[in-house]
Amino acid sequence: MGQSNIDLTGQVAIVTGGTRGLGRVVAARLAACGAQVTVCGRNAPDDLPAGLAFHAADVRDPDSARALVDAVFARHGRIDILVNNAGGSPQAPAATASPRYFDAILRLNLHAPMYLAQAAFAHMQPARRGSIINIASVSGIRPSPMTAAYGAAKAGLLNLTQSLAQEWGPDGVRVNAIIAGLMQTEMSGATYGDAAAQAAVAQSMPLQRMGTGGDIAGAVLWLCSDLSAWVSGARINVDGGGERPYFLDLVKGD
Q1: What average pLDDT is seen over the chain?
Q2: Which of 105, 136, 173, 218 is deepest in the core (most CB within 10 A)?
Q3: Residue 229, φ and ψ in degrees, nearest 5
Q4: Mean pLDDT, residues 132-149
């Protein structure tokens, strides 16, 4: 899990999509730093790391999203951190993708973060403190085939992040985005292919490996802490340096 000298003792955090995958790692790291962390999902997980609480919620529904945030506030009397991590990117050709498909992608990746941010801000504003972190994607800045809806949603999330930072900064609430690159997850095989294919993907990046939950968690911890007290509206790339320009392969070894 790694160690951190960041102390979040007494702070209250919500991590959406925190029952598995990258979100689970982020939530566990926040708890290890002393935060009281609630994760959510439509179904309770079989197990959770120590220090995490679970609240059933469908964040795509505005009433359910608000109920989640209000329940955490009622339990702890404060909300300091919201990590909008829940998302999804099932691929589909744009020419034949259905309206239902586009709506589902936008609801999860763009609408839900807004619903949750609104609900969290209602409690953060009176306290004049709070950190909202939106987990975005390189798809929002580097379009690719088969991800038109997802890329549009994540591009919208980046714009939303900066708009909220402008509007809510005077109330002491910071809003930032992490632009996640190619990540090693349980679904990597389905997305990138077998081990050889994944190794080739890793070689396309300057740091020559795919990202992990710990990479995202490190950036989240920094954005939650006082170390980033004057950072808001930022779009922080956590992507291994991005993709290497193709011409570097042409001069390799020179």
Answers
A1: 91
A2: 136
A3: -60, -25
A4: 94
H/E stretch holding 178 reads strand 173-180
Strands 36-41 and 130-137: unpaired
pLDDT tens digits along 29-85: 999 999 999 999 988 888 988 899 999 999 999 999 999 999 999 999 999 999 999
Q: What is the mean pLDDT of residues 214-230?
A: 97
| CA–CA dist 8, 250 (Å, integer) | 47
Give the alpha-carbon dihedral of 94, 161, 83, 219, to 10 degrees. 100
Q: What does DSSP assign to residue 56? A: E
- What is d(CA 107, CA 37) in angstroms, rounded to the nearest whole number? 24
Phi and psi angles of residue 79, each rounded to the nearest 5 degrees, phi first: -140, 120
Q: Which CATH class is domain 12-250?
A: alpha beta
Average the pLDDT over 91-119 and give the result.
Answer: 97
Instruction: Give the DSSP H or E segment for 11.
Output: none
Domain boundaries, the chain: 12-250
Structure tokens at 65: 């999203």
* Cβ neighbours, 10 Å, residue 5: 8
Q: Is 246 a catalytic residue?
A: no
> Are 227 and 244 a contacting pair, CB within 8 Å?
no
> What residues contact residue 157 under an 8 Å CB cut-off, 6+ apart?
84, 109, 110, 113, 134, 136, 140, 177
